Amino acid sequence: MQKNYFKSITVGLLLTVIMSVDAFAQNVTLSVDEALAIFYQRNTDLIAAQYNIEQSKADEIIAAAIPNPTFGFQLSEMAKNPNMGASAQGCNNNPNVSCGLAQYYSFSQLIEVAGKRGLRMQSSGFATQAAESDFRDAVRIFSSMVRESYFGLLQAQKNRWLAQEIVDNYRDIVKANSLRLKGGDISESDFLRVKMEAMHAQSDLDNAQMAVEQAQAGLAVVLRWPDKSLQFEAKDEWAVIKDIGQNLSKETLIDKALQQRPDLQADKLRAEQADKELELARRLKYPDVTVNAGYAHDPSNNNLNSAFVGFNVPLPLFYQYQGETDKAFVNLNQNKLAVEQTEISIRNDVVMALAAWSSADKVVQRFNDGLLKDALTVRNSSELAYSKGATSVLDFIDAQRNYKNVMRDYYVAMINKVNAYHNLAKSLAIELNTNKIAVADDYNSSKQ
Predict the structure, then answer these.
(1) For the domain bounded by 2-67+136-285+323-447, which CATH number is listed?
(2) SS3 sequence, 6-28?
(3) Looking at the predicted structure, is the pLDDT value of residue 218 above 90?
(4) Which residues pair with 111 in a beta bridge?
């Protein structure tokens, strides 16, 4: 069952994460799988989805139940000395002797006709399957939320590391320029320009630290704020990009999504359920039969012991359940409309996600094709030339700023690519973390 699967794989991950948080006062590094494990364990919406499954299974049991029989017992002719001196076969004809009370035993059983019970069972079965599809869809959506917050934290951390690198670089340059200023190799205005840039770099680092703390708080909110969640840090690694069909055509991916998306499956199952409910409503006009049988022991009757059998049938003369039929028909049309709307939404999701992935992938490729290397080379060359007095301070500062901007743009491009990849997987209903137990084992080994 879906909930047992996610429960088993998240408990182990959650325990290792909590133990590591308790064991160290410093920040605790989390992988995206470990963040997902914490989320699944704490998320109340997923728990509610699990309860819907249990409720649907209970409804299945109710729908399959056979009506219980009814047993009746009755005493008749209750009076003082009943049937005194009666001449019936069960009496002794003595005027001073009572014949006793009459005793009646009855048994009745409702028998449903026209296959109503079978239709109820089929309807409740579709409801259970729809609830399970809802659960899988909740996992799909919530997993995307966690990943987005997690990689947002990673982006903030990357910007902080970049800001720290620039601060450290300027610190070394300011120290070297202090000596050059004393030796008369540079002017005081050039020294002050570099010093001002160093101060700006420190301000950027402060802002980057604030952004990290805000991202930590955002992740904590998504994870329902576990203990010491503000100490969580994302691992310094981007998501592994796998082949999920991103090179296939739009039509192929749309067909794949229409086959796999649990929200569409849930809507189709509810349409099937509504169809069974309509058929059940139409069959309500066929009355169910109640069979009756009994035994009577009546001393005052000429027949001392007797039995009877019969049946009761309600006659649908004035009302033939047209209201129930019309209501079920409207419900069926609404569910069919929901299926069509979900299909349109899925097509749009796939097209938009594929376009975002193609664009983000191309942008990152341009950075990897040389833009990152060129920015670093220009920065290092300018720094070396400036230290030897071969270039102006403005060129040096411009190279530093250009390097910082390129790196920031690169981190943004990488996050866009990661999010586009995960959104494409979400639109196709592909679960990326299929080996969570192995991840838990690796994490446990690293902590030993």
Answers:
(1) 1.20.1600.10
(2) HHHHHHHHHHHHHHHHHHCCCCE
(3) yes
(4) 289
pLDDT value at 334 more than 70 = yes
Distance of CA 382 to the CA centre of its chain: 51
Cβ(328)–Cβ(274) below 8 Å = yes
154 CA to centre of own chain: 23
Average pLDDT for 307-333: 93
Residue 439: per-residue pLDDT: 35
CA-nearest of 35, 40, 242, 30 to 157 is 30
Q: What are phi and psi of 150, to 5 degrees?
A: -65, -50
| DSSP state, residue 367 | I
Q: Are 40 and 10 in contact (CB under 8 A)?
A: yes
Nearest to 166 by CA among 205, 140, 113: 205
**Coil, strand or helix at 246:** coil
Q: Does position 240 have pLDDT exceeding 80, yes or no?
A: yes
Q: How many Cα atoms are found within 13 Å in the side-chain-facing hemisphere of 107?
A: 7
Buried b (16+ CB within 10 A) or exposed e, 44-71: eebeebbebbeebbebbeebeeeeeeee
On whether the pTM is more than 0.70, the answer is yes
Contact predicate 204/164, CB 8 Å: no
The secondary structure element, H or E, covering residue 65 is none
Phi (first) and psi of residue 187, to 5 degrees = -80, 160
| DSSP assigned state of 389 | T
SS3 296: strand
What pLDDT does 83 receive?
60
Cβ atoms of 412 and 435 closer than 8 Å? no
Q: How far apart are CA 68 and CA 57, in angstroms?
A: 21
